[in-house]
Design goal:
This protein is mainly α. The chain has one domain.
Amino acid sequence: MPFKDLDIFLQAARAILQASDPYSIPNLEVFYPLPFYFLFVPLVGLPAPLVYALWTALQAIILVAILRRRAFVAAFAMPVLLTLLLGQVDISAMGLYAALQSSIAGGVALAFLVLKPQLVLLLAPWLLWQWWRVDRGQIFRFCAVIGIMVGMSFLIQPDWLWQFFARSGERTRANISSSLWGVLAILPSSVWLPITVLVVAGVVVWAWRKNDFAIVAATGLLVSPYIFSYNLTPLWITVRRFSVLAGLAMLSWLTFAIGAWQSNDRAAALLTLVVLIEIVRQLPKRLHGKDR
């Protein structure tokens, strides 16, 4: 159904304006923190077709502004197409990923990204650690923005955090996700959890020790148990070569077909693995470029 997720965001925002609990709306998949839905409050009063057009135009502008010439190729990748089709926020998240490396806006960008926490489960603590060491002003900006949004949420609905955790558990479908949790679900159920935990822990330690933004960002998407294929859209900012981007776009159609055949999203994890391999291959060149 086109714009299915955007419709959910709008219904939740409408409930907030009506002083109702969005988490209690029957058959509505309200899984994000309450401040996330504040972002859609300005769109509530507009006709649905206008909202769809404005939202799609905004995502297209962000895609072109961030990827520039690469945007045309990236637009044919299934994660990007699904983001546009569902009315999701992952192209906007890609823009925030780009802003994370800014010396001014990084802390603010992270504050908005944690409203969709599955995208930054690893990246957020790594960035906060980096900023603690070299730029504590980013932490101040992050805490200030988060503090304002969370404070407003408690004023509007004092029990929202409890309701959020009660509902968000319904989204835990790790064994079919586009992550290592989904890939390793081919193992017998009796050993799937302990083996996956060990593998994920090892990959996280490896990425943390690499101490590279692109590696940590991609690894975070690979190990998050809440990731689905459209959530991989922010990966495209880490891919610089047209040939690799075109290959990923074609591969994404194959993984989408496999996912439709198997009724799960596991195959899309292959996209993250390919991107991660490309990032590691290009790491010496990027480090050499910084040294020059």
